[in-house]
């Protein structure tokens, strides 16, 4: 801009006109549209036949008129973006709240399960203590009566032992085993 202003001091009208024209271009690039229009007008005062200056003047005038419309569109776009961002944040907060609630419910369920398991273990311990106390309290020589659960546990343990022994026999390598006669 300083160089163009120095060129305005010249006595040559063509140089001054070109300087105003170039100043208008520079001001347009700096988004100074009203100043750009003034520079193009001065260029046309000095050279009314300059087609480039006429075209640029009309172009910048049109751009200046359209600028409020562009700003409105930009403002609308910004508002839409803000609304979308707010909606996304709201959705995220709701999702976070749901996740937090699910975590709390899951923790409560786990705590309740642990509590129930602890109570069951305590109950089993009490039953075992009562059974051992009953055994100790029985006088020697009396037959001990088994509960149905105890009898089932003993039978199940015997069945498991039997299955383990059968598996062990099957695993033995045939042919290498020596058969001992037991008669």
- Structural class, by secondary structure, is mainly alpha
H and E string = HHHHH
**What gross morphology would you assign?**
rod-shaped
- Distance N terminus to C terminus? 126 Å
The residue ranges in which pLDDT falls below 50 over 5 or more consecutive positions are none
Beta-strand proportion: under 5%
Radius of gyration: 50 Å
* Total DSSP E strands: 0
Give a verbal description of the structure:
The chain has 183 residues and is mainly α. 81% of the residues lie in helices and 0% in strands. The chain contains five helices and no strands. Helix 3 packs antiparallel against helix 4. The longest helix is centred in the middle third of the chain and has 87 residues, at 51-137. It is rod-shaped, with a radius of gyration of 50 Å. The mean pLDDT is 84.
Question: What's this, in brief?
Answer:
With 183 residues, the protein is mainly α. The protein has helices spanning 2-7, 13-29, 33-46, 51-137, 148-171.
Q: Notable features of this structure?
A:
183 residues, mainly alpha, 5 helices, rod-shaped
Strand-helix topology:
Elements: H1 2-7, H2 13-29, H3 33-46, H4 51-137, H5 148-171
Helix pairs in contact: 2-3, 2-4, 3-4
């Amino acid at each position: 801009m300083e160089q163009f202003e120095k060129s305005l001091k010249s006595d040559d009208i063509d140089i001054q006109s070109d300087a105003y024209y170039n100043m208008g271009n520079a001001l347009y690039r700096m988004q100074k549209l009203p100043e750009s229009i003034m520079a193009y007008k001065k260029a046309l005062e000095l050279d009314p036949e300059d087609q480039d200056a006429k075209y640029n003047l009309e172009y910048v005038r049109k751009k200046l008129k359209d600028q409020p419309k562009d700003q409105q569109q930009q403002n609308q776009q910004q508002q839409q973006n803000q609304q979308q961002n707010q909606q996304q944040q709201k959705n995220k907060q709701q999702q976070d709240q749901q996740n937090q609630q699910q975590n709390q419910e899951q923790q409560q369920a786990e705590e309740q399960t642990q509590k129930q398991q602890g109570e069951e273990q305590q109950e089993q311990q009490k039953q075992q203590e009562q059974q051992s106390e009953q055994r100790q309290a029985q006088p020697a020589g009396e037959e001990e009566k088994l509960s149905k659960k105890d009898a089932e546990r003993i039978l199940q343990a015997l069945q498991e032992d039997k299955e383990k022994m059968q598996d062990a026999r099957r695993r033995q390598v045939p042919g290498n085993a020596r058969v001992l006669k037991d008669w």
